[in-house]
Amino acid sequence: MSAPARETHGTAWAEDAAAFQTGAGRRVAPWIADFRKLGLDGFRELGFPAPKQEDWRFTNIAPIAGARFPFAASPGPGVSSASLAPFLFDSPDWTRLVFADGHFVSSLSSIGEWDGADIQSLADIMPSGHPVAERHIGQCVPTGTNGFTALNAACLNDGVYINVGEGETVKKPVLLVYLAVRDEPFAAHPRNLIIVGDHAQLTVVELFVSLTGGAHFTNALTEISAGRRSVVDYYRIQQESPLAYHVSSVGVRQEELSSFSSASINLGGALTRNNLSVELAGEACTTVMNGLSIVDGDRHVDNQTALDHASPRCESEELYKAIVDDRARSVFNGKIYVRPGAQKTDAKQTNRNLLLSKNATVDTKPQLEIFADDVKCTHGATVGQLDENQLFYLRSRAMDEQTASQLLTYGFANDIIERISLEPVRAYLHRAQSSALHTAAAIGDLQ
Amino acid sequence: MEPILRIRNLHAEVEGKEILKGVDLIVNPGEVHAIMGPNGSGKSTLAQVLAGHPAFTVTEGSIIYKGQDIQETAPEDRARDGIFLAFQYPIEIPGVSNSTFLRTGLNEVRKRRGLPELDAFDFVELVKQKAAMVQMDQSLIDRPVNEGFSGGEKKRNEIFQMAMLEPSLGILDETDSGLDIDALRIVSDGVNQLRSPDRAFVLVTHYQRLLTYIVPDFVHVLFDGRIVKSGGKDLALHLEEYGYDAIKQEADAANGVSN
Ligand SMILES: Nc1ncnc2c1ncn2[C@@H]1O[C@H](COP(=O)(O)OP(=O)(O)OP(=O)(O)O)[C@@H](O)[C@H]1O
Ligand SMILES: [Mg+2]
Q1: Taking each helix axis from N to C terminus, what angle separates B98-112 and B120-133, rounded to the nearest 10 degrees?
Q2: Are A79 and A219 found together in one domain?
Q3: Tens-digit pLDDT profile for residues A318-373
Q4: How far is A34 from chain B, CA to nearest CA, in Å?
Q5: What is the extent of the structural domain holding A411?
Q6: Residues with CB under 6 A from ligand 1
Q7: What ipTM, to 2 d.p.?
């Protein structure tokens, strides 16, 4: 067998990660050092995913593998509360943790009094032993899943640790803002470890934004462990620069009767790849997975979801939508496994794509593997242009063709946004999607 | 007096298939015309052609609205000039609230009429007033257009929109189908309130019942793409009793079809 191509193998990335591990500024406890080493060994073995791997067939990550994004040793210059202001959802009272170029910035963050949860930057818990974090890290997203998850572990530097106590309800949403600040190319590998106890409730909003239009690489990873009867709402908004590379790996494990609801909104990035996997480990869980991507130019977005119905009587509903313009490409792959014994599973998956240009591309693939007999699983995928009858309906109500098209396109996306229960997030996304779609202000203002 | 609508020898086709085969109709201000006819005879086609649906091609004849030939007029301009079509099957628009939809359209219509845009406050007031007219639940205003509406709610929403846009010519395509008895009365009351000497209505219906609430000046029977019989409101009663058989035979005889 021939050796993998150099850029796929990521030798230079491994060297950088090794240099980071030996040179990293702050001292870390042995469990962190061991975890990083596990990541580096994994990455050396796995390299970056190759296009011949089934799950990476449509997304060529050579531009990442072949580039060199150095680790940013400190937050970039000039980040201030003024630059942060547009990204706070007009909700200054929310708990927030702000990261600049991958580093926690405590002066911009606001972690209030104990509100039912232990919330800290991951860097803050790294200098000493931490049995809970140690037990959970790498559980929901195994380090050896692929080269990106291994690299994230190898470069473990910062992120968020949230532990919601049993029966606690964290009343205000926890907002995590990841700012790309510096102009020069850099890589950040934020990692979040979220543990929600039995009967506990938590809402987390992750927001990724670039303050400049430069190229950078985000390799984010979030692990969420949802205890029995817990309720977790998880929103993820990616608005990085049109030159940014963004890879995310989110893993969720749900215990009995828990409810997990997510929305993944992708408005930025040159190349975006999101992996979301949810394991329904306990019985009678509910899972909602919504997604919206808006891509134009030569941009590329790839959403891979995997839902593991490992227990009986769980319900899942998944709706991913994409609006694809110019020469952009959107990929969707939705896996649903129904394990033997997972009877009374009720799974529904829908993927809808709106093509605004004849040069835009969509690849959509449902992948259902069902090993139980008493289950209800439905899936559907559509790829199409604006509907002629809808257009006519709007025009018959006095809207010109362009306004009608814009309103329909807006509505196509808004359908996902309206499913978000947090009003400030909806308001923020109404504005964000208007600008992503270049919608006339008159339409955006009406919402 | 200038008719609001004058249709002459109108032929229209869709996907190469001729549906309208020479329709003639004159509608004067203040009048209500009912169009009846068997399934598939072309009633909705006529309604959609009047509203300007691009899927239909007019191959012959003319549509004169307020003295202007509107064949080349875009649907939105027809709407701004006062033509309103209440759809037989109202369309669902996910993600767009009923109020956004209506406010955008209403402001276009107002612009054409030389009126200023309504601000949010005045819009809400107008919505309240018009929704009350058709007893439409306020909660439907903030929901996505027609999505998840019951059949009756969709029809009511059409009449509500018509009340908001105050057209000169209201074309109601089977608005009565799917309405319960109370809703039929309420919707009819709404239409009757909109009746005025300078406004006209064309009602497509299968049922005489609607015409006891909204009493028409004329009743026409559309059969195989032509109006084959016209009369007063009694014609509807006659049809209710005897069906279309006699008319079909007359029409076939006139066309030289034997059976
Ligand atoms: N878009 C289309 N493509 C092909 N055929 C069409 C289309 N629209 C209408 N037709 C055909 O034109 C004919 C007339 O249809 P239309 O909807 O006008 O009938 P209608 O009189 O309104 O019937 P109903 O009473 O059932 O509503 C039918 O045979 C129908 O199948
Ligand atoms: Mg019809």
Answers
A1: 100
A2: yes
A3: 999 999 999 999 999 999 999 999 999 999 999 999 999 999 999 999 999 999 99
A4: 49
A5: 387-447
A6: B 14-15, 17, 19, 37, 39-45, 55, 88
A7: 0.96
